[in-house]
Amino acid sequence: MTYCVGLRLNKGLVFMSDTRTNAGVDNVSVFRKMFSWQVPGERVLMLMTAGNLATTQSVVSLLDERSKAPQDRNPSILETPSMFQTARQVGETLREVIQANAMSGQTADSAFNATLILGGQIRGSEPRLFMIYPEGNFIEANGDTPFFQIGETKYGRPILVRAYDPDMSFEDAVKLMLVSFDSTIKANLSVGLPLDMQVYEAGKLQLGVSQRIAGDDPYYQTISANWGEALTQALKSLPDFHFSGGPETSR
């Protein structure tokens, strides 16, 4: 499985993805799920993938090939006039790959499904963040929905909902996302380290800090240990529950 998060801040965008893929507990591999393209000073694009590995790899390969040799029918994502048009092009590529590989029937189609998170900035516009569905359509992040998750989303969502602040620093955003990933990794064996992280600062029009975080990373280990302890202490600090009918009620 997969867990990826794209976060929109006032300062820019932050992306994080795990790298685990599996076809059962005895067939676990590491594959990158975060990809980027840039024309420094003109545009920066970042993509994260979840779903069928063959589908997502085909989509990324096609986007990469077409960025080097664009055609009228398949324009390059490095030449689209806006992030909206870029999301549209990526969505059409995803739909093309799924339709080309799927057999007949609903079950066969779903086996080739994939979902993507696309973010970036093109000169003359603000940074934008999109989630692209297998059908090729997409939605855009806004003030009410400032982040997107794909893959195993439920375990890491509560901390994002409670602690997200659009004014937070990149450092705090990475810390928040690491807590979200640690909660997911603890709860689901199909999500695992190492993690890939990418930061993009609004207006820079070039890729920012990029890092792979391994399981033995000292900061990740500190976050993981301290978050578990902090949750325990927070639970203990809450008011005690009392049964309305006295101790006999619990018998």
User: Low-confidence parts lasting 5 or more residues at pLDDT below 50?
Assistant: 104-108
Gyration radius (Cα, Å) is 20 Å
Count of helix runs: 6
Helix/strand order, N-terminal first: EEEEEEHHHEEEEHHEEH
Report the CATH architecture. Answer: 4-Layer Sandwich
- For this structure, the CATH topology is Glutamine Phosphoribosylpyrophosphate, subunit 1, domain 1
Strand content: 25-35%
What structural class do helix, strand and pairing data support? alpha+beta
User: What is the share of helical residues?
Assistant: 25-40%
- The overall pLDDT, averaged over residues, is 93
Number of strands: 12
In total, the number of domains comes to 1
| Name of the level-1 CATH class | Alpha Beta
Write the layout of secondary structure elements.
Elements: E1 3-8, E2 12-17, E3 20-22, E4 28-30, E5 34-39, E6 43-51, H1 53-68, H2 83-101, H3 106-111, E7 114-122, E8 128-132, E9 138-140, E10 147-151, H4 157-163, H5 170-187, E11 195-201, E12 210-213, H6 218-237
Antiparallel strand pairs: 1-2, 1-10, 2-11, 3-4, 5-6, 6-7, 7-8, 8-9, 11-12
Helix pairs in contact: 1-2, 4-5, 5-6
